[in-house]
Amino acid sequence: MYNYAGVIVNNDSVKVDKIFTYKIPEGLKNKIDLGQRVKVPFGMGNKNIDGFIVQLYEYVELDAKSLSKLKAIIEISDDFQVIREKDISLIGIMRGKYLCTYLECIKVFIPSGITKGMKFKTKNVVVLGEPITAKYEKESYKKILEFIKENNGNYSKQQLSNEFGFSVSSINTLIKHGFLVLEEAVINRYNDKQYNNYEERTLNSLQQQAVNTIMNSKGKKFLIHGVTGSGKTEIYMNLVKKAMEDGKDSIILIPEISLTPQMVERFKGRFGKNVAIFHSKLSDGERFDEWMRVKMGKVKVAIGARSAIFLPFSNLGLIVIDEEHEGSYKSDSDPKYNARDIAELKSDIEGCKVVLGSATPAIESYYKATTGEYTLITLSERADGAVLPQVKIVDMREELMNDNKSIFSASLFSGLKHTLANKEQAILFLNRRGFSTFVSCRKCGYVFKCSNCDIALTYHNYSSNLTCHYCGAKRQIVNTCPRCKSKYVKYFGIGTEQLEDQVKKVFPEARTLRMDFDTTRGKNSYEKIYNSFRNEEHNVLIGTQMVAKGLDFPNVTLVGVIAADLSLNLPDYRANERTFQLITQVSGRAGRGKKPGRVVVQTYTPESFSIKYAVENDYISFYKEEVEIRRAMNYPPFAKILAINLSSEDEKLLIKSIQDLGDKLHIKLDNNDKIEVLGPCPCGVSKIKSAYRWQILIKGDFTTELAEEIKDITYNELNSVHNYIKVGLDVNPNNLL
Ligand code: ADP
Ligand code: ZN
Ligand code: ZN
Question: Residue 216's pLDDT is what?
Fold first, then answer.
């Protein structure tokens, strides 16, 4: 019998980030359980707040006085455990690994609807009753009764009147005499759409081998390195089916679900309605309903973006992470977790299998495959016999020497002409949105920047203003330089808007469609663009990296990469990797059907190895070269990076505080030869939304314990200024800007 409970309270302050001990009152002793949400008195005023039970004890080692001071739990809030017991240990691990609070971890495991006291949504629907009186002969009554017989319990009174034109007073009369009854029914707030059956395919021998390896091998973690179109999805589905036959649940993660309606179609089309979908664009109600369906064991499969990794399945057998190299698996708010790491931890804790898949694995993942931590499975051919596209590299410097000043090289120009003439489709990829990416004065060099951020403004044609891509601030266009008053204000840099403009001008036969952040903001706008391109209402799709992901259209025979070098020049150790991935992935969109595909990659640096190997579709050579650079420079996977980011509107205070912190960390760590302390220095983007930004990077082979010490030093040092300075700690951040 447990007498005391360890409770995490629902209060955001870092100061209360610990486990509080509460007494369990007699009346609750036989109901109390780990993972429950409870109401507890908290603080000086004994305010009733939510708490989560993470420990249970028979005794606590306290003196009599302290013991008598312990407060008691007031009540248990739900009739189920909101956190699974297995997840409680995971929460503890995450807190140490990601240097955040218990509560921040708990919050990713439960939907916000739980603490808000959300319930299932219901409405009163009309159902057939058992009348005592004789039959009604009136024609209008008969019609209503017949309709309800066909649609028993489907509609409310309001719907019957508004949508089907029945009279409310007739319905009321029928209710009064017992012919009809009102009943409360639950409304599904999740996607309950029926999808076309997605037929099972017979696996080819490579796919079958992959499935066998995963099913029979003793290891639990697998990396499928399969070229684009090698049929990885079919392998995932096969594994899900096997897990189901075993009575086990599966989680499929995909990069950001709204971006891949195709996957949803395939999974719902194969496994029926009972697939939960979980992503960031769900409303609180939808999220609550989907989470409850999982909790109550109504679904065996969930497919979703990174947060779906935390769904409370009771018997998890399989986690699949598709396109595992994707940056969107890492969260940039606390806990700053990477879903890949969480999957591994889950596998260690509850024994489920983890399958990572990609045509361009993250360097960290492939490294683990070489050390044996993951079992490597390689698929080097496309599944349906389609051949990989032919890729041509074009040196744009030569184009210029041949007097071609347009953004289309001769090859891309003739390729597009040919594609359009043949009634095929093309995808053009340019990783910059807007019309012109910066505006500057040719006389004095003034660059138009955001007044809140240290970022050049982008000119957007459709709204004809200058926009900041960091804070969204807009500014009117001006034709005179604010500094020297000259009229030589000029627009530089081409974005997707201008590319679309150019395509329309140069190729009158093109029916263009643009897919970027600006055109996909609405809830279903991505799906609309996706469907209209699939239905071939358009023949040229222009877009940012969104077009590089997951699209599988048989009539796309040409892909053009407008400027391959763009991602190469970012000041980030992952720049080579990102460039290789983007070019390979977008190239993989070409020639997925019966017709062969062509890719034209335009670049100013054809000699850079990431572009060269991407064009040759040679991941292994790329990996070998890149991993040696990482080793030499001591970057992941050979070391960790802990970024300590401070921001404040008070620049002076910020600099003083981070320098003091820097001094402390240097003193503590400088004689540790496994660790480097870099900085403090201003961040790559030195100001965002009026807040100045500085950072310290700690690089090396540090342990979780040392990281926690660094966390404590940081919070102690900044304790007196924490109202003015925001602190962010991030282990292996997605970008260092
Ligand atoms: P990947 O995820 O590896 O890029 P997909 O799973 O999208 O590849 O598969 C590429 C194409 O090959 C799809 O159109 C799919 O329907 C088809 N395909 C997959 N497996 C088979 C198979 N065993 N037989 C025939 N076609 C297949
Ligand atoms: Zn000027
Ligand atoms: Zn801004």
Answer: 94
**pLDDT, position 437:** 85
pTM score of the predicted model = 0.88
Atom of ligand 1 nearest to the CA of 230: 3
In the chain, % of residues over pLDDT 90? 62
Between CA 100 and CA 88 the distance in angstroms is: 15
CA 179, CA 579: separation in Å to the nearest integer?
69
For the record, the structure tokens of 731 come out as 């282990």
Residue range 241-265, pLDDT digits in tens: 999 999 999 999 998 765 667 788 8
Query: Using CB atoms within 10 A of its CB, is residue 728 exposed (0-12), middle (13-18) or buried (19+)?
Result: middle
Q: How many CB atoms lie within 10 A of CB 634?
A: 15
Rounded to the nearest angstrom, the distance between the alpha carbon of 158 and the centre of ligand 1 is 47
CA distance 301 to 322: 15
pLDDT tens digits, one per residue of 159-206 = 899 988 998 988 998 888 888 889 888 777 777 777 888 899 999 999
Given a cut of 70, whether residue 20 has pLDDT beyond it is: yes
Helix, strand or coil for residue 214? helix
Q: Which residues line ligand 1 (CB under 6 A)?
A: 201-204, 207, 226, 228-234, 383-384, 552
Answer for the pair 236, 322: CB distance below 8 angstroms, yes or no: yes
Greatest alpha-carbon span in the chain: 96
Sheet holding 489-494, edge to edge: 474-476, 465-467, 458-460, 436-441, 489-494
Cα 97 from Cα 105, distance rounded (Å): 11
The Å distance, Cα 443 to ligand 2 centre, comes to 5
Structure tokens at 519: 């055109």
Q: Which of 265, 324, 552, 589 to mutate to test the pocket of ligand 1 (most atoms within 8 A of CB)?
A: 552
DSSP secondary-structure letter at 405?
-
Mutation choice for ligand 1 from 200, 227, 233, CB with most ligand atoms inside 8 A: 233
The three-state secondary structure class of 459 is: strand
Cβ–Cβ < 8 Å for 409, 399 = yes
275-330, pLDDT tens digit by residue? 999 888 888 999 999 999 999 999 999 999 999 999 999 999 999 999 999 989 99
Residue 307 CB: number of other CB atoms within 10 A?
19
Atom of ligand 1 nearest to the CA of 386: 12
Give the ligand whose atoms come closest to the C-alpha of residue 385. 1
CA angle 395, 401, 404 (to 5 degrees): 80
Distance 690 CA to ligand 3 centre (A): 8
Mean of all residue pLDDT scores within the chain = 91
Please answer whether residues 174 and 136 qualify as being in contact, where contact means their C-beta atoms are separated by less than 8 angstroms. Answer: yes
Comparing 608 with 522, which gets the higher pLDDT? 608
CA-nearest residue for atom 19, ligand 1, is 231
Q: How far is the CA of 309 from the centre of ligand 3 (A)?
A: 33
Q: Is 579 helix (H, G, I), strand (E, B) or coil?
A: helix
Sign, CA dihedral 194-198-200-206, equals: negative
Q: Is 278 left (phi over 0), alpha (psi -120 to 50) or beta?
A: beta
pLDDT in tens, 321-370: 999 999 899 998 999 999 999 999 999 999 999 999 999 999 999 999 99
Short-list 98, 619, 614, CA closest to 362: 619
How far apart are alpha carbons 157 and 179 in whole angstroms? 14
